[in-house]
Design a protein that fits this description.
Keywords: Aminotransferase, Pyridoxal phosphate, Transferase
Bound molecules: (2S)-2-hydroxybutanedioic acid
Radius of gyration: 21 Å
CATH topology of the largest domain: Aspartate Aminotransferase, domain 2
Enzyme class: transferase
Number of helices: 14
Pfam families: Aminotran_1_2
GO molecular function, one term: pyridoxal phosphate binding
Structural class: alpha/beta
Number of strands: 13
Cofactor: pyridoxal 5'-phosphate
């Protein structure tokens, strides 16, 4: 049965974790996967999460099956966070939100549902994009192309190219957009440019699928989420996948969601019924713990305020590390201007290093980033930054 099964390549991101774990270099630094570590190199357990878990343990609850679409209080909290509790779109019942197995799960539920409603549509992802976008939509049965996004020569977004590609897309094309903190480049488009993207999506009758895995890591929770409101205001039916992996440091709990904006309440109910079939036939219903923790935090004003504070601290520390990286590279003798690192936003820096340089960093110094040159700035700290700067200086 398995004699012809080929060995698949390692995952370009999570595969690095396996290599990193096996590396015996005592100075090794993992800048591969998008995970935030604190200044001591520790994965944080947020205080708001601990407080919510303590309250849960004080009143232990049995674990029955959740509804197929997840915890009601969780889904409502996601709607409030992503669209605004008082927004017309939420109040009028036009948003269908389901709890998902991380942001990846939200993308997958959306992709499978889209394959039912738009079986012949093509999908466009940004060039470059998160490595898993292409695979998720291809595995859902779509042909996946790309729209221009990053211009290596100017180290910025090729916005004209992006817009031209959207305007040339066939009606019905599904366009995967990064709501904030573009992964992997760290370059977002401006609010005015979003308006032009929305106009193109509307004029060409495209389907926007917004991936928002880093809300709060750019400029703030509301600021990063503002783009969703713009799409809603334009009267578009959109998909939004969201994740609490990073913003709650709950990576292993796989807490995410998919929200779909329909035209009216009746349509939203029909959409929800179909999303539930996708979930039921894939994994039946979501797990309890992570969703319960996030719901407890978001629905309690004190814990919510604590979360916003802790998320803000993560955001600020990443920005400090960006500046330290620029300064450290200069001090280590790197001649080229690396100040672009501070204009990038979110967890990642697209360093511009070649695959060969990234492989050397890994093999000779135990500094892990993706082959595309992406480094997770959120894993730098005051103890490893000098070593990383020295290593980069030796390979560039
Ligand atoms: C990343 O891009 O590193 C993260 O989104 C983690 C992942 O699942 O790839």
């Amino acid at each position: 049965l398995f004699s012809a099964v080929e060995m698949a390549p390692r995952d370009p991101i999570l595969g690095l974790n396996e290599q990193f774990a096996a590396d015996t270099n005592p100075s090794k630094v993992n800048l591969g996967v998008g995970v935030y570590f604190d200044d001591n190199g520790k994965l944080p357990l947020l205080q708001c999460v601990q407080a919510a878990e303590k309250a849960m343990m004080d009143k232990p609850a049995a674990r029955g099956y959740l509804p197929i679409d997840g915890i009601v209080a969780y889904d409502n909290a996601v709607k409030a966070l992503v669209f605004g509790a008082e927004s017309d779109v939420v109040k009028s019942g036009r948003v269908s939100t389901v709890q998902a197995i991380g942001g990846t799960g939200g993308l997958k539920i959306g992709a499978d549902f889209l394959k039912k409603v738009s079986p012949d549509a093509k999908v466009l992802i940004s060039d470059p994009s998160w490595e898993n976008h292409r695979a998720i939509f291809q595995n859902a049965g779509f042909e996946v192309g790309s729209y221009r996004y990053y211009d290596a020569a100017t180290r910025s977004v090729n916005f004209e190219g992006m817009l031209a590609d959207l305007n040339a897309a066939a009606p019905g094309t599904i366009v995967v957009l990064h709501a904030c903190c573009h992964n992997p480049t760290g370059y977002d488009i401006t609010a005015a440019q979003w308006d032009q993207v929305i106009a193109a999506v509307k004029a060409r009758n495209l389907t926007a699928f917004l991936d928002m895995a880093y809300q709060g890591f750019g400029h703030g929770i509301a600021e990063d989420g503002a783009v969703i409101g713009k799409f809603v205001a334009a009267g578009l039916n959109i998909f939004v996948s969201t994740s609490f992996s990073k913003s709650f440091s709950l990576y292993g709990e796989r807490v995410g969601a998919l929200s779909v904006v329909a035209s009216d309440k009746d349509e939203a109910a029909r959409v929800l019924s179909q999303l539930k079939i996708v979930i039921r036939t894939n994994y039946s219903n979501p797990p309890t713990h992570g969703g319960a923790v996030v719901a407890a935090v978001l629905n309690n004003p004190e814990l919510r305020a604590l979360w916003e504070k802790e998320l803000g601290e993560m955001r600020v520390r990443i920005k400090e590390m960006r500046q330290k990286l620029v300064d450290g590279l200069k001090a280590a003798g790197v001649k080229q201007d690396m100040s672009f690192i501070t204009t990038q936003i979110g967890m990642f820096s697209y360093s511009g290093l070649s695959k060969d340089q990234m492989v050397r960093l890994r093999n000779e110094f135990g500094v892990y980033g993706t082959d595309t040159g992406r480094m997770c700035v959120a894993a730098l700290n005051s103890k490893n930054i000098d070593y990383v700067c020295q290593a980069i200086a030796k390979v560039v």
